[in-house]
Input
Amino acid sequence: MLTETSTHWLNLHDDLHFLSDNKRFIWASERNGFKHLYLYNTDGKQLAQLTDGQWVVDSLHAVDEQDGWIYFTGRADTPLERHLYKAPLDGKSPEHVVRITKRNGFHNIVFAGNMKTYIDKFSNIQTPSQVSLHKINGEHVTWLEENKVDANHPIAPYYDQLVMPEFGTLKSDDDQATLYYKLYKPKQLEPGKKYPVIVKVYGGPYAQRVTNKWQGADMIQYMVNQGYVVFQLDNRGSNYRGTAFEFPIYENLGEVEVADQVTGVKFLRTLNFVDPERIGIYGHSYGGYMALMSMFKAGDYFKAGVSGAPVTDWRLYDTHYTERYLNHPEANAKGYVTSSVFPYAKNLNGPLFVYHGMADDNVLFTNTTKLIKTLQDENKVFELMTYPGSKHSMRGKKVKVHLNNTIIDFFDRHFK
Output
C-alpha cells in the first residue's frame, strides 16, 4: 500500500517488493549463501546489495523511500534471536545495519500503514510474551499487553520453579558446522550423582528449537522437575543458518541430522553429572522420525527412545514437502530408500515406545502400521500406544495428560 509519504507497508513474508516507481524492486535471495536483500531494476540489473554478512534476513517489513531506509527482521546479532533492523536503501554499506529493537530475545513486528509506529510482540527465555507499541526509532510508546509476571499472573506460583537453560555451541564431528544447544538441569544437582538425560529432538528442515524465546511450563520443565537433564540441539538442516548449514540434508534425510545429535551426546558424556548409560531421545513428527533413526543407527549413544507420529517411509508423506528435500522418487530412488527407517530397523537394541493418533491426517497412521509390521518381522520388542480420534497435534487435555504421563512412565521404567 502506497502512502502519502511514499512508504510501503508489507506482509510479514514478502520476498519481492516493488518500489513506487514500478521500475525497481527489492528481492530476497540466498545467492551468497545467506538470505539477504537486493535492489534490482525491472530489466533484471542489480543496482545494489542492501544487506550482507554471515547471517540471514527473516522478512522485509517496510520501505521508506522518502528517508531512504528499509526495515526488516533478521539474525545479525545471533541466530538465536530475531530483531528489527534498518539499512540504507542506497546499498552503500550493506554490511552495516542498525538494530532498532532493544531487548534481547525474539521480536515479531507489524508496522502501521504510515510507518511511524510498529507493534512488537516480544519474549525471551525468561519473559512471557509482551505486546507493545513503539516509535519507528524503537522508543517505547505504550503497552498493549504488558503480561507482567506479578502476583496475579497465572505463572506466578510456578515461575520460581522454572529452570532456565544454558545456551552453548559445539563443533560438528566433521568440523563443518557450529551447532547451538540448550541444556536444562534439575535445580538442585546432588554432588556426585549421575542423572539420566532426555534429548528432546525435532531436527527437521525449516524449523528451529534452540532460541531465546519463552517456552513456559511445558513438557521439558516437567521432565526436569522429575529429575531428568533435558538437552536440545539444532542439527544441520534446520533453519536460519544459511545454505551451507541447511542444504546437507538434500536427497538424504536422517544422515547428517543423526550425526549432529550424536555430537551432542558425546558432549553430554563429558559432563560429570550425566550418566552416559542413561541417555534417551524423544521427538514428535520429524522428531519421531529422528528418534527412530537415532535408535536404529546410533543405539550405542541413545539407550531408549520415544517416537511420536513418525514418518517412516517418505513415499507416504506429502509430496509438496518431501520432494522439496528428497527430489522426485524417480530422480532419487536410492535416497528414498536410505532416508526411510526400514533398512536400519534390524539394529534396534534398546527400549522403544511408539505412539500415534489414529486419525492423523498429516503423518498418516500407515507410517506406524508399516513400522509395527517391520519390527515384528525382525522379532524386536517395543511398546505402542494409539490414540483413537487424535490427529497429528494430539490435542485435548485428556489426551495430553495421558500421553505425557505415558512418556515419563516409559523413561522412568528404563532409566530409574
Notes: The longest helix spans residues 397-415. Confidence is low (pLDDT under 50) at residues 1-13. The two ends are 60 Å apart (CA to CA). The first strand starts at residue 7 and ends at 9.
